[in-house]
TrEMBL record:
<feature type="transmembrane region" description="Helical">
    <location>
        <begin position="37"/>
        <end position="54"/>
    </location>
</feature>
<dbReference type="Pfam" id="PF01757">
    <property type="entry name" value="Acyl_transf_3"/>
</dbReference>
<feature type="transmembrane region" description="Helical">
    <location>
        <begin position="207"/>
        <end position="226"/>
    </location>
</feature>
<feature type="transmembrane region" description="Helical">
    <location>
        <begin position="247"/>
        <end position="265"/>
    </location>
</feature>
<feature type="transmembrane region" description="Helical">
    <location>
        <begin position="114"/>
        <end position="133"/>
    </location>
</feature>
<keyword id="KW-0472">Membrane</keyword>
<feature type="domain" description="Acyltransferase 3">
    <location>
        <begin position="9"/>
        <end position="291"/>
    </location>
</feature>
<feature type="transmembrane region" description="Helical">
    <location>
        <begin position="271"/>
        <end position="293"/>
    </location>
</feature>
<dbReference type="GO" id="GO:0016746">
    <property type="term" value="F:acyltransferase activity"/>
</dbReference>
<keyword id="KW-0012">Acyltransferase</keyword>
<keyword id="KW-0812">Transmembrane</keyword>
<feature type="transmembrane region" description="Helical">
    <location>
        <begin position="7"/>
        <end position="25"/>
    </location>
</feature>
<feature type="transmembrane region" description="Helical">
    <location>
        <begin position="140"/>
        <end position="161"/>
    </location>
</feature>
<dbReference type="InterPro" id="IPR002656">
    <property type="entry name" value="Acyl_transf_3_dom"/>
</dbReference>
<keyword id="KW-0808">Transferase</keyword>
<protein>
    <submittedName>
        <fullName>Acyltransferase</fullName>
        <ecNumber>2.3.1.-</ecNumber>
    </submittedName>
</protein>
<keyword id="KW-1133">Transmembrane helix</keyword>
Amino acid sequence: MRERVATADFVKCICIILMVLFHLVCVEEAYPYAKAVVYTFHMPVFLFLSGLFANMSKPAAVFGRYILWIFIPYAVMEAAYTGMSAILPVRGGVESLSPAVIIHNVFFQPMGPYWYLHTLIVALLACYLCSVACRRLPTLLFIIVLSLCLGVLSYIGLLSADSALYFILGVAVGRCHMDFDVLFRPTALAFVPLVILCCFPENLDRFTLAGLAIVYLSVCCMLWIYRFIPVRIKSVMHFIGRNTLPILLFSPIFTMASKAFLPLFSFDSTLVLFACIAVPFAVGGSLFIAWAMDKTRFSGSSRKHGAYVKLGN
């Protein structure tokens, strides 16, 4: 069981904020190239960290409950998003709604921002089953077996090949007991190759060596910046980094709601002021919902330990 790593929580905080920022449709449309750069590294970082810190030593019942408390809110939110897409002008929405369409989207091909949770559930289940079946195998053989398993799942369309790649890399690093802060070196020099790589659109593909380099260099740059963040701000960012699940789940509610006050910022063509309000609105609103669910025990948590809002390690 790995201890929480403060720097990893900081990186997760940066990535989740970038995710929320570019889920604001107006920002996405105003800055398409910036979106392409961010999309090259932010979700691969999450997948890598999910593999790195995956705890496969849990008893089956405990692991099953862990997956269940990801799947239930995911299924509810994905079903709701699918239903809303049939009514509202959502990009790539369904033309006709039916139980079969909802079941297909929840279990096989999620739409909207919830694909990551579907991928995470599939990857964790595959990793756990491989861990149980290959308990006595050395690390290299286990990684080969897991790669073959996720390769098959990718072939049948349950997750993408690039998502499988970053999850496997995280698992491999974790199995080799390499520390996060050793693997990623904080240095200002990382900005130079990162900027050069990001200047060429063909490099903005996370399933290439250039894309892999962008992911690695992005984390190194974030960790260099981490040194200069005041302690109080760090503590807030660590808290956000510990609670990315509710932000992933509930932020679409607030990014859509933020359209209501977009006209108030019509004087700012850069959308910077709007983003400075909309992003905290989405992050804070998501955490508030999670806190309320834990307080009312709707999330199935105990009074001492929240299911969704993690106050500490």
